[in-house]
Write a structure and sequence with these properties.
single chain, alpha/beta, 51% helix, SDR_fam, NAD(P)-bd_dom_sf, NAD(P)-dependent dehydrogenase (Short-subunit alcohol dehydrogenase family)
Length: 279
């Protein structure tokens, strides 16, 4: 039996790559899926592919950095599919490469605005709907630079670290109302974003390590994150709400580690215990 038959799922950045696979998996599990992107052609293709496999989905264009547009989209989702049960923030921008003194300020800020402000907007729109119904799950995708330095990707890294903290704050605010938030790192996946890092002059100059990782065979399939998020949607990892889960995780092993992770306050954006005592 499909686990998500009664679920309305929203996937941003669902026109290709990781987002498309997440949308596919939600539909395979029985969810009704709203696919959001700025590019109509790509999300139309995603919806057509879902429908060809017997699923139900709608395509909606929106710029997530525009809150009015986000509000309008969520109103349309409620009308066409019902109130949202699962929000997956997969949209992302990584255009500013290099040391901060060489990055174009507007390009650097655009990465932060799309990634962080866009996630804030969708969380702000979805949370009241979920809280009113007493259920819901939100998944924010993070990535490189979330918990470590990323010198030549500072805008992207800063936004992802902030999204991790946003996820923690949101979860601590809403979990009492049975709405849970999670951060998911899909791992290094070959996408249009990474292709730009591999092929542009700035990418080759400032991010040569990406090419080396691919040459070393590091290439995580997007299905890993999609299957993990389906498990999150079904409630398998509710005890890890507010924490970081990874596409490369063995999901059975992760489930067996839940108690120890919670006890150790693991998978969270924290100072060390010794550092916390000094603050």
């Amino acid at each position: 039996m499909a686990r998500l038959t009664d679920t309305v799922a929203v996937v941003t950045g669902g026109g290709r790559g990781i987002g498309r696979e997440i949308a596919f998996q939600q539909a395979r599990e029985g969810a009704r899926v709203a696919v959001i992107s700025r590019t109509a052609k790509e999300i139309d293709e995603t919806v057509s592919m879902i429908e060809a496999n017997g699923g139900r989905a709608i395509a909606l264009t929106a710029d997530v950095s525009d809150y009015t547009a986000v509000e309008n989209v969520f109103a349309k989702i409620a009308e066409q599919l019902g109130p949202v049960d699962l929000l997956v923030n997969n949209h992302g921008s990584f255009q500013a490469f290099g040391p901060i003194w060489e990055c174009d300020p507007e390009t650097w800020w655009q990465d932060v605005e799309i990634n962080l402000r866009g996630s804030f907007h969708t969380c702000r729109a979805a949370s009241p709907i979920m809280l009113e119904r007493g259920k819901g799950r939100i998944v924010n995708l993070v990535g490189g630079g979330t918990g470590n330095s990323f010198p030549h990707g500072s805008g992207y890294a800063s936004s992802k670290a902030a999204i991790m903290r946003l996820t923690e704050c949101l979860n601590d605010t809403t979990v009492g109302g049975s709405v849970r938030a999670f951060a998911v790192d899909p791992g290094l996946v070959r996408t249009a974003m990474t292709e730009m890092q591999l092929t542009t002059e700035a990418g080759k100059r400032f991010l040569p390590g990406i090419q080396q990782l691919f040459e070393d065979g590091i290439n995580v399939e997007p299905t890993r994150a999609a299957l993990l998020i389906a498990d999150i949607a079904a409630g398998r990892f509710d005890a890890l709400a507010g924490r970081l889960l990874c596409g490369v995780d063995d999901r059975d092993a992760l489930e067996s580690q839940i108690e120890s992770l919670v006890a150790a306050d693991g998978r969270a954006l924290r100072f060390t215990a010794l550092e916390q005592k000094k603050l």
